[in-house]
Amino acid sequence: MDPVLNSEVKYLKGIGPKKAELLAAELNIVTVRDLLYFFPFKYIDRSKFYRINEIDVTQTFIQVRGRIIKFRVEGMKYKQRLTALFADETGTMELVWFKGINWVKETYSAGIEYIAFGRPTIFNNRITIAHPELEPLDSA
Description:
The chain is α+β, with helices and mostly antiparallel strands and 140 residues long. The chain folds into two domains: 1-39, no CATH class; 52-139, CATH 2.40.50.140. It contains three helices and seven strands. The protein has helices at 16-27, 32-36, 101-107; strands at residues 62-74, 81-88, 91-97, 113-118, 120-123, 126-130, 133-136. A seven-stranded mixed beta sheet has the order 5-6-3-2-1-4-7. Strand 1 (62-74) and strand 2 form a beta hairpin. The N and C termini lie far apart (45 Å).
């Protein structure tokens, strides 16, 4: 047996004892061998951008480039949700947040181009993404 492969991951540069504890607890990675033979269970390709008219709701995750046209708060009190009309040159869709409404309104602005990433669904005959990851296009 190779002693390097059987050494604990906490001795690898950049890991240390705290991160080694987390790796052991979350992923059952204790040795260098465990780390080398750990294969992620899924891979999400974030290199492809879709246009809104190309979106198929059977896809697991998509990435779309477009602008937020406007925000709208719907519902009352504890059942409030924030929707944003998101558009590119081919159509529109909705982005929806059920939590963190104030933070979203303060963080994102209408008229700015974003990259939206998430799982598409159909709601009220409209393509929607609930709680998307948004990134300004200029920082991408």
